[in-house]
Amino acid sequence: MSTRHGTEGTAPGDGGGGRGGRGGSVVQSALYRGGRRTASPGSLAETFRRLREAPDGMAWIGLQRPSEAELLSLAAEFDLHELAVEDALEAHQRPKLERYGDTLFVVLRAARYLDAPEEVDFGELHVFVGRDFVITVRHAAAPDLSAVRRRMEEDPDLLALGPEAVLYAILDAVVDGYAPVVAGVQNDIDEIETEVFRGDPEVSRRIYELSREMVEFQRATRPLVGMLHALMAGFAKYGTDEELQRYLRDVADHVTHTSERVDGFRQALTEILTVNATLVTQQQNAEMRALAEAGFEQNEEIKKISSWAAILFAPTLVGTIYGMNFENMPELKWAAGYPFAILLMAGVCVSLYFIFKRRDWL
């Protein structure tokens, strides 16, 4: 599992308002009024000052891996809850939505698929949403929040709906980022199915590793379903714009669909692993059967060879004894000695033949 860290990048025409290059964690800070950018402050202090001067404005601050001092200054200015600030500093949180007074704290897990290593690259994103501000804290390259900012600035009517509209756009970007991951995983599962029936010896490892990726993907997508439903449950209470409600419902539908696909992938991988284990077992059984049959045939040949060796051993033994040419040997002068020896050897050979034949050795 890999997690790469990136920077948000500044939006076009920001007039150098972002510092996100070297040393600073404030990637971009901008003020908006009526859905249009009015200022691009170069520091948090300037952002705070300008926002106080424009009570009907909205600040959108993008941070990447901020320091504790920076987050504490934001917490003091916007009255952020200490538990949310602690979570944003430590990272490694599961997706969740918490409401602290008038401030929403949202944790998201963005994802992108790396085809070569067949890994899902997860990035953690924390979002603070208040009455007149949005603060994003990123801990990885995904999602591309500069693209989200450009999209919102190109649609002033949507941006004019306020911080909730920005939260929608961020949620939409995260969820849309799941689609290529789903497509990549589907393609890999199709390849794995082919490899399973082709008998590829490395496929078991590939199934296991992809299954682990799906577990992480489930942890990223499944909580989003409950989070979106919680947001929708608060539409009436918090006076959410009707158009924004439709947008959020659409995101909720996409999240539900993605979560179901991920659940299906995990189930499919479990079934594929079972089928692969069955095929491997069948192959091993076939190999064992082939070895057993080869061993049986070999034993039959050994029996035949052993039987003929025993049959030929009897006359060889008799002939060897009488071929020693000692002068004082019994029956050397016996007239019936030769025919008796021949008959003895023939009788022993015939007897052994029928014995081995009855035992199916010959």
Descriptive key words:
362 residues; alpha+beta; 7-stranded mixed β-sheet; 11 helices; 7 strands; 60% helix; 15% strand; disordered N terminus
Helix content: 55-70%
List the total number of helices: 11
Number of strands: 7
The proportion of residues in beta strands is: 5-15%
The span between the termini is 65 Å
Arrangement of strands in the largest sheet: 2-1-3-7-6-5-4
User: Per the principal axes of the C-alpha atoms, what is the gross shape?
Assistant: rod-shaped
Please give the radius of gyration in angstroms. Answer: 41 Å
Low-confidence stretches: 1-23
Overview of the structural elements:
The chain has 362 residues and is an alpha+beta fold. It has helices at residues 44-53, 68-78, 82-90, 145-153, 156-159, 163-176, 178-198, 203-233, 235-238, 242-322, 337-358, and strands spanning 26-33, 36-39, 58-64, 96-100, 103-114, 119-129, 133-138. It has a 7-stranded mixed β-sheet with strand order 2-1-3-7-6-5-4, sandwiched between helices. Helix 6 (163-176) packs parallel to helix 10 (242-322), helix 7 (178-198) runs parallel beside helix 10 and helix 8 (203-233) packs antiparallel against helix 10. It starts with 25 loop residues before the first strand and ends with a helix.
